[in-house]
Amino acid sequence: MATYIYETIPPTPGQKPERFEVVQGMAEAPLTRHPASGQPVRRVITGGFGFIAAGSKAESGPAAASCAPGCACHRGSYVPAS
Predict the structure, then answer these.
(1) CA–CA separation, 53 vs 47, rounded Å?
(2) Buried b / exposed e across 17-37, counting CB within 10 Å, b at 16+?
(3) Could you please report the per-residue DSSP string of 2-52?
(4) How is residue 82 annotated by DSSP?
(5) What is the mean pLDDT, run by run of 10 residues, along the chain of 82 residues?
(6) How far apart are CA 20 and CA 39, in angstroms?
(7) Partners of 5 in the beta sheet?
(8) 43 neighbors 78 (Cβ within 8 angstroms)
(9) Sheet of 2-8: strands edge to edge?
(10) Cβ partners under 8 Å of residue 43, min gap 6
(11) C-alpha–C-alpha distance, residues 70 and 9, integer Å
(12) What is the CA radius of gyration of the chain?
């Protein structure tokens, strides 16, 4: 289950929308109406968050062609086929 942020669509310009969260399955259709008031809503797209660990094992250096053996995105995890 994922938590989605929605906001109401104000009937008049300049009116502040109400934001709220809803836990839904990823296969469920987005809401079109506020569950309590019935007012039209839209899903708000927000930036996610990533996990960045201190002391990463990745080495810096010049990048090779994208997704080639030894490329920067696979450095340290590429194992050649034998």
Answers:
(1) 19
(2) eeebebebeeeeeebeebeee
(3) EEEEEEE--SSTTPPPPEEEEEE-TTSPPPSB-TTT--BEEEEP-------
(4) -
(5) 94 94 95 96 85 62 54 50 50
(6) 13
(7) 21, 44
(8) no
(9) 19-24, 2-8, 41-44
(10) 4, 5, 6, 30, 31
(11) 49
(12) 22
Residue type, 3: T
Rounded Cα gap, residues 41 and 33, in angstroms: 5
Q: Categorise residue 2: left if φ over 0, alpha if ψ from -120 to 50, beta otherwise.
A: beta
In this prediction, residue 82 carries a pLDDT of 46
Closest CA to 18 of 1, 35, 2, 26: 35
